[in-house]
Here is the input.
Amino acid sequence: MRLLLALLMTMCVMGTGWAGNLKIYSGAGLIKPMEEFRGNFEKTHDVQLDIHYGSSGELFGLLGMGQTCDVLIPGAAKYTEDAVKNGWIEKGSVHRLVKHIPVIAVPAGNPAGIHALEDLARPGVKLAMGDPKGPAIGRVANKIFKKNGLAKRIKPNVQVLAPTVNQLLIYVALGQVDAALIWGDLVTWAEGKGKLEVVDIPASQNMIKTIPTGVGSSSASPEMAHAFNDYIGSAEGMAIWKKHGFAPCSE
Amino acid sequence: MQRINPFKIILVTISLIVTGILVLAVGSLFLVPTWSDVWTNLFSKEMQFSLQLTLWTGGISASLVLLFALPIGYTLSRFDFPGKGLAKTIMDLPIAFPELVLGLCLLLVFGNTPLGKGLEKLGFQVVFSKTGVVVAQFFTALPYAIRIMKSTFDYVPQRLEFVSRSLGYSSFETFRKVTLPLARNGILAAAVISFARCIGTFGTVLILAGGTYMKTETLPITLYLNMSYGNMGMALTSGVILVLVSFIAIFIVEKTEVGV
Here is the structure.
């Protein structure tokens, strides 16, 4: 009986611990800067951050299923716009943080000789793509191919549709595919260093996205949520974004 | 009047609480979706594809698993050889490590390597393909089947094998005509568990075969993808099917009365 009581008590204690936490939904590709924000913010504020990393589509799906979050930071502005429309995110709280620039990532040595978007449509080139219904990069890649009239010719080259953007990075770094469209900031990750090379896409062919942030409309601790929402857009926050290869929207 | 035994009460209470939570959890999978929704989803193009792919890859993988688990289980049960302990530990490893790790290991072996390229020349593209689904399922389920087969053979009396040998059967004849029939229930259990394990394999398939929509999409991948698409109906439907298959598998195994 005592054991049961002890069990119940620990559950209660843990329960109260959870109540003071801030629940953050973040795009999986933002994990590096987000972990640094978490460390800094927890030091200066009396709060714990529970960050759930997922594909933008998944985060959006979770909100659609009735889950709530205190702050939402997806991989493209479309998701916060739609979340505001659905009433899940406070309208005035959304601001744009940094640019998310798609690039072509190829394994070290560029074995397939990819130098432009058109090369991806060459027969025999092996491509990995984000699932168009999953991560933001999947949707964007699909649109970039369509915009440049390549969608049809690229289709047979696609070997795999990855459910998250990080999986794309692994497949390119291991040389499993010849190329993939990935966010430019992801390839500055230490993991990718030396394992892959970047081919830039000219601005006229590219679709540059922005990473937004917004506060959940049913946040249990709106003040803390706003504080975090503002912090990641502050000058100090921007320095961290830059360190991880993201360009501020103002530049 | 019987004395109250607090030890017994606590243990029974814990068992009942956990069982209750499990019943609630599995039950809600069946109560939340509307049946007409499940029915429509069941006949959607994606689900039909996923179901068929899961059944035939699971069938092939489970057959291959049995084909290998039989001799390996027998070897581990009957023979002594240098390095046996190590071999046994290594074959058990995949039970202990997460499927994702196993997937990554297989990706490294069958990926952009001489082995992977050699197999590709022979027409077996393992990575990002349906072959990859089978390979992933095979390595995930194999250790379970080996365990069952080993313990099955452990319980087949060696004395009967000796008698068979002394009456003139060769080793192989003894294995085929005496040991195998006695191990029938164990083989059935291994087959059912392997099949259930194969169709439920997630992490290994996700990494090695890519988890691509309508290409390497097995039931657990359908569940995962549709969770991330926010399409709860499809996710629940795949969950229901997977649970039903597991129920049937466990029911059959219980019937065969083999200790697993």
Q: What stands out?
A: DSSP finds 13 helices and no strands in chain B.
